[in-house]
Design a protein that fits this description.
By secondary structure, the chain is an alpha/beta fold. It has a domain at 35-41 and 57-203: Carbonic anhydrase (Beta-carbonic Anhydrase, Chain A, 3-Layer(aba) Sandwich). 41% of the residues lie in helices and 16% in strands. It contains nine helices and six strands. It has helices at 3-13, 17-29, 47-51, 77-88, 103-109, 118-123, 128-137, 143-162, 166-174, and strands at 35-40, 58-63, 93-99, 178-185, 190-195, 200-203. Strands 2-1-3-4-5-6 form a six-stranded mixed sheet, covered by helices on one side. The longest helix is centred in the last third of the chain and has 20 residues, at 143-162. The mean pLDDT is 95. It binds zinc ion (ZN). Zinc ion binds next to helix 5.
Length: 227
Amino acid sequence: MHELLSRLTRFKEELSPAQQALYQNLARHGQQPKTLIISCADSRVVPEQIIQAGPGELFVCRNTGNIVPPFSQANGGVTSTVEYAVMALGVTDIIVCGHSDCGAMKAVANPVGLEKIPNVAAWLHHSQVAAQVVEKCHPNIGPKERVRAICLENVVAQLAHLRTHPSVAAGIARGDISLHGWFFDIGPGQILALDGASGRFEPVTEGRSLPIAHKAEPRLAADFCAT
Ligand SMILES: [Zn+2]
């Protein structure tokens, strides 16, 4: 039997009565996830497992390098997913999740051989900003530290891109959406979360509040309604 076939068969056979009921309920009433996560497509990063989320709880967008292109009128999978998550599903939290040992960020750090994969090369232009920031701020670090720094700066850069999307910008202004920047350290299974106040990535640990990149709070750029 093909390995995939046996896995699919086992999935259906081993569903507990509670899981069967959950799927039936989700099929009947639809989904109402409150969190969108944009993570790398790397097979070692499994958002549902990291967050311990079941079916129906997490809206997931995965791509090479956990990239969010800046908003444009050009149609794109990430843009459509973000727009749908915010406007149709009403998510309240959006997470951009990078990770250690990211092949995409290694390619950003050292773009050798990218000419053979031109679509990947073009896609990774959206992460150039991270490489530039690291180059200017940490010119003397070694190659391993450089890749890790680019992985972290890439999360910051993609959060900035996310805010150029009108649906997200409006949700933030209304105080309806929080933004999270995460970094998954694969070896120890540790999440580092960006603290927007300090600008640093902090380990997520029991007993401490979750560091948040941008907390949901209403803000108005204009002063016409201040009385
Ligand atoms: Zn990756």
